[in-house]
Amino acid sequence: MLIELIYFLNQKIDITPFEASIMYGGMAIDTNYFTYRTNSRTLDAASQLISMGAESDKVKFWFRQEFSKMLKMNQLISNMEIYMDRFAIVKSNEIIENRSFLAKVAENVLNIQNIEAAFVVGRLQEKEIGISARSYNNVNVQIIMEQMGGGGHMNSAATQIEESNIDIIVGTLKNILALEYKERAKNMKVILLEDIKNKGNKNDIIEITLGYGNFLIKEKKALLANDKNIKKIEKDKQLKEQQDLEHTALMNKLKKDIDNKQINLKITVGPKGKIYRKITMKQIVDEFFKEFNILINKKKIVLDSEINSLGVYKASVVLKKDITASFIINVTENKNE
């Protein structure tokens, strides 16, 4: 430390009370007010600075929080999760420009009784998530953060991860904590976004291991089954059911409009009634639209038999899985040609 070096120099160095207060403030921040990385030498140096005129109350005054930041901090802490009865996990989906804010939140969380380590997970950019970790002596957050690509000290560490889904990061953190502190990794519940073989169907809520759950979320095949996502899925399900009812009603009406209608196709035939040109689905669709002002999707039309001669044919229209309409095609000779 600089203050220790001063006493080994032969010449006298004058330090003003203001300068002493600045150095004292640096020590206070670096040690979280003499909580981390603090020993007898640290306290001796602080004592020397105070003897030089450093004012601890002035330092405290300098480091006061802005009202908006304090409010935001309290909002985040009020929604924190207690994991394994000893770890606090705070997360923020809003972009936090000042990364030191995460550390301040973590340090404040440690003031809560029975919390041994605090992990504040925040979005630094759209696709970058940071974690600030703080702890007391019996929890080594450096090891935890190193497993997530970061580092630091035993009681103060951090990491930054390229990822857009904050819940995946929280899930990974929980899994590491569970494995590191000898508790069996817990499962997680997810909402399937598509059918998964041997697991479930779309919109099912299933319980699976954290690792597989995080994989499905990352691959966009599942969502974390939290209250927000469950409500969204339920809302989407209700909306789809309503849309299905409306679509079914519309298809039933269309079925009534199509059923038993007849179109007449006049074609040129050769000797013995042989058709020269094949009748296309487009001809059928165009004629039906011309006669009844109803446009049918040609891909939905199924003929009972191939039209290869004059006569009456039946055509079916698959409007929906369980709704099929039918109409008649009367093929006659065009005697005007």
UniProtKB/TrEMBL annotation:
Residues 251-332 form the Large ribosomal subunit protein bL9 C-terminal domain. One of its GO terms (molecular function) is rRNA binding. One of its GO terms (cellular component) is ribosome. One of its GO terms (biological process) is translation. Keywords: Ribonucleoprotein, Ribosomal protein, RNA-binding, rRNA-binding. SUPFAM superfamilies: DHH phosphoesterases (SSF64182), L9 N-domain-like (SSF55658), Ribosomal protein L9 C-domain (SSF55653). Residues 98-177 form the DHHA1 domain. Transmembrane segments: none annotated. Residues 188-233 form the Ribosomal protein L9 domain. InterPro entries: DHH_sf, DHHA1_dom, Oligoribo/pAp-PDE_c-di-AMP_PDE, Ribosomal_bL9/RNase_H1_N, Ribosomal_bL9_bac/chp, Ribosomal_bL9_C, Ribosomal_bL9_C_sf, Ribosomal_bL9_N. Belongs to the bacterial ribosomal protein bL9 family. Binds to the 23S rRNA. This is Large ribosomal subunit protein bL9. It comes from Candidatus Phytoplasma pruni. The gene is rplI.
